[in-house]
Amino acid sequence: MPELPSITIIGTGAVGSSLAIALHDAGYRLMSLINKSTDKAQDLLERLGAQIPISHTISDVQVGDVVFVCLPDDTLGNYSKEIQKVPNLAGKTVFHTSGVHAAVDVFSDLAEAGTEIGSTHPLQTFTKDTLATFKDVWVSLNGSDKAISLGRELFTNLGSKTFEIGNQEKVRFHTAAVMVCNYYVALVKAAEDLAGISNPSLKELMMPLMRQTLTNISEKELSNALTGPVARGDLGTIKKHLAAMPDEKSRDLYLILGHYAATLTNHDDVKSFF
Fold first, then answer.
1. Percentage of the chain modeled with pLDDT above 70
2. Spatial CB neighbours of 237, under 8 Å, sequence gap ≥ 6
3. Same domain for 196 and 149?
């Protein structure tokens, strides 16, 4: 069996920490951890139960065969200049984990230096203080042929499923992921403000409904997963909802979402209303 490549993780936040632990548990050797706050990297070491060199700068430690840059999207271009200072970069592979950037968008200078560049974006939600799993999670791959091949191997070993995505597709696809994940949370906030009920909390009241809705989405076509007044064609109920809206933003949100819901139905009057 070929030896697994060694790994350097840059950025030990929610994504980097989850990835470091998953790779470590899968048998990969973590060569080094880089983080602006070495205290935070030390916390990760304690979770790993391993002795791994840590630093706040990449130039102070030995770099692995594969480098994962798990930093905020807007910092990647500048950090690429730091990576260029590492000796013997040629032949190594550098990935970032941004959903919005193609590999070439931020790492083109590294490619010119002979480094394989790639983007690996797990379709997973990462929160502070909670380790996320990569098992059964889809990961988009983008970059050089060698980087994509290596990314596929790495994430397959973590139990993930992978697919390739083109440079031009990245932004719109990431926007879609933000809508179903981040804006799902925002939608619950909007519903909470609208409902005006605090005891029990709206989240507590609605959680069984939200869970069943996700189950329906998972198991059925979207048109069959949709329920409620739009699915039934109850225009009277829809008009009452709109009349009860406390402000224009709530009304606009209801109308926009109603439009997309109506496209899943055969009710022409509801479609024309929205």
1. 100
2. 229
3. no
pLDDT tens-place string over residues 146-205: 999 999 999 999 999 999 999 999 999 999 999 999 999 999 999 999 998 888 999 999
Confidence grade of residue 219 (pLDDT, cut at 50, 70, 90): very high
Do 20 and 30 form a contact (C-beta atoms < 8 A)?
yes
Domain hosting residue 119, numbered range: 7-166
CATH code for the domain of 220: 1.10.1040.20
User: Which whole number is the average pLDDT over 240-264?
Assistant: 97
Report the number of distinct structural domains present in the chain. 2
- Report pTM: 0.91
Q: What is the CATH number of the domain that holds 151?
A: 3.40.50.720
Do 125 and 57 sit in the same domain of this protein? yes
Q: So what's the pLDDT on residue 254?
A: 98
| For helices 14-25 and 38-48, angle between their N-to-C axes, nearest 10 degrees | 30
* AA identity, residue 35: N
Same domain for 125 and 89, yes or no, is yes
DSSP single-letter state for residue 134: -
Question: Strand ranges (DSSP E) for 66-190?
Answer: 66-69, 93-96, 116-122, 138-143, 161-164
The sheet with strand 93-96 has its strands ordered as 54-55, 30-34, 7-10, 66-69, 93-96, 116-122, 138-143, 161-164
Is the pLDDT at 86 greater than 80? The verdict is: yes
Residue 19 within a domain? yes
Is 149 part of any domain?
yes
Both 236 and 135 in one domain: the answer is no
Using the predicted structure, report yes or no on whether residue 1 has a pLDDT greater than 70.
no
Strand partners, 163: 140
d(CA 33, CA 56): 8
